[in-house]
Amino acid sequence: MILVSACLAGCNCKYNGKNNNVDQIQELVKANKAITVCPEVLGGLPTPRHPAEIQVKNGEIYVINKVGEDLTNEFLKGAEKTLEIARDLMPSKIILKSKSPSCGFGTIYDGTFTGTLKEGNGLTADLLYKNGFNIEEI
């Protein structure tokens, strides 16, 4: 079994109410070979919502949306719930949406809302990786 970001399977759960559908991912879900998760929705965030990015202040990591609201707790809650699902499912791999403050793995937006990328992981991807899960991103 594979765990995948819900937006990659065509679920309209992105911040803008849309998705990042990848036909191959959607086919895996339809064939019952993959299960979808959206950490941001699991954390209690609505769809649509303002875009959010990770910022570091005084060495602490925060997730702040474009209007300045601190959503760190919601993102952490979604990451923890996703980890619980992964522990129950024990997927062979986890495929996540690139650049996301939840699911990005290796590269994320830099917190300035200018489209600039930096090295780093989203909160969910980082938690899953630190718990030994095999992460891939699309």
Automatic annotation (TrEMBL):
Pfam families the record matches: 2-thiour_desulf
The protein's name in its UniProt record: Uncharacterized protein YbbK (DUF523 family)
PANTHER family recorded: HYPOTHETICAL CYTOSOLIC PROTEIN, INNER MEMBRANE PROTEIN
